[in-house]
Each structure stands twice: as structure tokens, then as C-alpha cells.
Write a structure and sequence with these properties.
By secondary structure, the chain is α/β, with parallel strands linked by helices. It has 6 helices and 5 strands. The protein has a 5-stranded mixed sheet with strand order 1-3-2-4-5, sandwiched between helices.
Length: 137
């Protein structure tokens, strides 16, 4: 687990932008068991690719006519139980931090794993997500 003083600004980067933090497995279950409409889930992380690419890309992707109705985040290495539960909804994809996933009516319809995020500018991440929004939102 990471020190809360280190991770709070990283978590706030998304929550201050309108993402709801899911901090327990119960929070995750409540959201995704009966999820209707579209939802974006960001698996946040302390790594550099989360700071430079994933979080900015996710936020920038919302500057679009079509976008998910709900925004959620879990923090890997901080919200351990919530992250573990969220990863059950990301199957069959292996655990990845960071990761960005789009759901429609409770079904995973698009995912960016770390390997899709790392080394790519935030603009590329945003454009990838916007294309998914055009299809599913």
C-alpha cells in the first residue's frame, strides 16, 4: 500500500474532475451489478504512465459530444479490495494498472490496458476512447 499523502493528489486528479472513487469491494459491486447505460472506469496508479497518459487521456476524452454517463475510479495499491473486485469485471483481461474500461449496460465493451497506454501521448489515449464513445455512448 502506498502512503496516502503520496496518492491523494493522484486520486484527486480524477475525483476533482467528476470521477466517483470506489474504495471498497461493496462500492464496486453496487455500481457494476446492475449498471445501466454507459460507465467509464479508470484503474488509477502511481506510475508515470498514469500521470502523463492515462489520467490526462481519460479526462481529455470527455471533451466530446458523446461520452459515458457515469465516471468511476479505483486506485491500485490503495483501494486493494475495490481494485480486486473491479478486476473481476474486467475479465478475461489480466490485471493492469493503469487501465481504462468502458461498460455499457454492465458489459465491458472497450478496454485500454497498460500496454495500450504506456508510451502513448494523452491525446492518442483520448482519441481512442472518443472512438469507443462514438460506438457505444
Amino acid at each position: 500500500m502506498y502512503p496516502i499523502a503520496l496518492t491523494t493528489p493522484m486520486a484527486n486528479d480524477l475525483t476533482d474532475f467528476g470521477f466517483e472513487s470506489l474504495s471498497t469491494s461493496g462500492d464496486v459491486e453496487q455500481v457494476f451489478e446492475n449498471q445501466q447505460g454507459t460507465a467509464l472506469l479508470v484503474v488509477n496508479s502511481v506510475c508515470g504512465c498514469a500521470a502523463a497518459m492515462a489520467r490526462p487521456g481519460a479526462k481529455r476524452s470527455l471533451e466530446n459530444d458523446k461520452h459515458p454517463e457515469k465516471l468511476y475510479t479505483v486506485f491500485a495499491g490503495v483501494d486493494t479490495d475495490a481494485t480486486s473486485k473491479a478486476r473481476e469485471y474486467l475479465l478475461p483481461y489480466p490485471p493492469s494498472s493503469p487501465a481504462i474500461a468502458l461498460f455499457k449496460d454492465g458489459k465491458l465493451v472497450h478496454i485500454l490496458e497498460r500496454r495500450h497506454i504506456e508510451g502513448r501521448p494523452a491525446e492518442v489515449i483520448a482519441e481512442n476512447l472518443k472512438m469507443a464513445y462514438e460506438t457505444y455512448c
